Amino acid sequence: MTAQDAEELYVEEALALVNNRPGPAFSATAQAPASVSGTPHAAEAPGHRTTPWPEARALAERAARSAGRRAPVTVALGDALGAVLAEPLTALTDLPSFDTSAMDGWAVAGPGPWTVRDGGVLAGHAEPDRLGDGEAAPIATGARIPPDTTAILRSEHGRTDAGGRLHATREVNHGQDIRSRGQECRDGDQLLPLGTRITPVVLGLAAAAGYDTVSVLPRPRAEVLILGDELLTEGLPHDGLIRDALGPMLPSWLRALGAEVTAVRRLGDDADALHEALRTSSADLVVTTGGTAAGPVDHVHPTLDRIGAELLVDGVKVRPGHPMLLARIGESRHLVGLPGNPLAAVSGLFTLAEPLLRILAGRAAPEPYALPVREAVHGHPYDTRLVPVVVRADRAVPLRYNGPAMLRGIAAASALAVVPPGGARPGENVELLQLPWSTAGIQVCFT
C-alpha cells in the first residue's frame, strides 16, 4: 500500500469513527486510531518530527527570506504583469498634462447664447485658437480646451436656433466638464508604493504617467518535475495507468502565485534522472509530484540525501497532503515535494509553495479572511484539515468530493477552509485560503 492510499484509508477510517460518535466531529480528547503503517499517530520515528501546519507555512516564509533579496530588473510594461514594483511609481508628468474636455459638445466662453465658429476642436491636435466672449466651438472628448473657455456644454444639453446661435437647455456652471491639468496627479506625486503587485490597471496607470519600462522584483523561477511511471499524458486511463492531473494544473497555479515556470519535465520513477535534474537545475524553486513517502519507487528523500540538501519540513500535520516536504538545495534554491494525489498536492501548494513564492516574489501577505461554516465540517483528531468550500451568503459551504485524489470539489470552490483538529461546528468561523482566480461571488455548490 502506498502512502497516498494509506492517507485516503486513514481519512475514511477517521470519518467512520466520527459518524459513530455524537456531535459534529471528533472531540479534542478522542483517541486516534493507529496509522495504517502500524505506528501510533502520537509516536513518530526516532529523530523525525512532523511539522504542525501553521509552523510549516512560517518555515516556508523564513526559508524564502534566508535566500536574500534579489536585485531589481527593468522590464517593458508588456512584460511586467504579475510582478511587484521594486520602487515607487512616481508621476513623470501632470495628469492630465493639459486642460481637456470631458465630454463631446461645445467649448463655450461667457454666458449664452453663443455664436458657433467654424471648425471643431479634436483630440490629439495642437492648442486651438482662443475663444472670444460669447463664442462656442464644437469639441470632442479628450481635446485640448481653447484658452478662455468657461465650460463645456454637452451635446445633449445644447440646441441651435434658425440663426445658428447655440442655446443651453440646462444651466451651465463655470468649469463644467473640464478636466483641469493635474486633476489626477502632479509631476512627482507618488502614484503607487514599492511592493505593489502589477495588475492590468497598474500597467494602464504607468503608461498614462509616461512610463515605457518599470523596475520590478524578478519573478522566482520554478521548475516542475512530474514523477511516476503510471501517468498518462493523453487518452483514457487503462491497464493500471492513470491520467496526469498535476502536469496540466501546476504550471498555471505556480504562475498565479508569482513564479515564472521555466520547465515541466516528466521523469517517471527514475532515480538517476531525478538526481540529474536536481543537480543541474538553476530554478529558485523545484516542485516535484509524488515520491515523497518511503515506498520502493519513492526517490525524493534518497535523492535529496545524495545531493546534500537540507530538509526543512519533512511531513506536515495536515490532511490531505501530510507527506509533503520542503528542502534547501545549496544556499538559495529550494524544493517543495508535493504528494502525488491531486488534492493533496493542492494542500502542499498552499502550505509550502505559496508562502515561499510570495516572499521570493515580494508580494504582500493576504489579509486574514474568515467566515462561519454553514454546516458541520468533520475534522481530523490531531491534524489541520483543508476542505474545499464555496462562499454563499457570507457562509462557507463545504463541498463534496474532497478526498485526497479528487479535484471535483475544488474545481467548483472559491476557497479552502482551514479546519482545526476536532472539526468545526455550524456557525463557527474558519480561516479561508482564497484560490488565486476565485471571487467570493461564485455560486456553484454540490450538495
Automatic annotation (TrEMBL):
PANTHER family: GEPHYRIN, MOLYBDOPTERIN BIOSYNTHESIS PROTEIN. It is an enzyme of class 2 (transferase). Catalyzes the insertion of molybdate into adenylated molybdopterin with the concomitant release of AMP. Residues 26-51 are annotated as: Disordered. Gene3D superfamilies: MoaB/Mog-like domain, MoeA, C-terminal, domain IV, Molybdopterin biosynthesis moea protein, domain 2, Molybdopterin biosynthesis moea protein, domain 3. Keywords: Magnesium, Metal-binding, Molybdenum, Molybdenum cofactor biosynthesis, Transferase. Pfam families: MoCF_biosynth, MoeA_C, MoeA_N. It comes from the Bacteria. InterPro entries: MoaB/Mog-like_dom_sf, MoaB/Mog_dom, MoeA-like, MoeA_C_domain_IV, MoeA_C_domain_IV_sf, MoeA_linker/N, MoeA_linker/N_sf. This is Molybdopterin molybdenumtransferase. CDD domains: MoeA. Pathway: Cofactor biosynthesis; molybdopterin biosynthesis. Residues 223-359 form the MoaB/Mog domain. Belongs to the MoeA family.
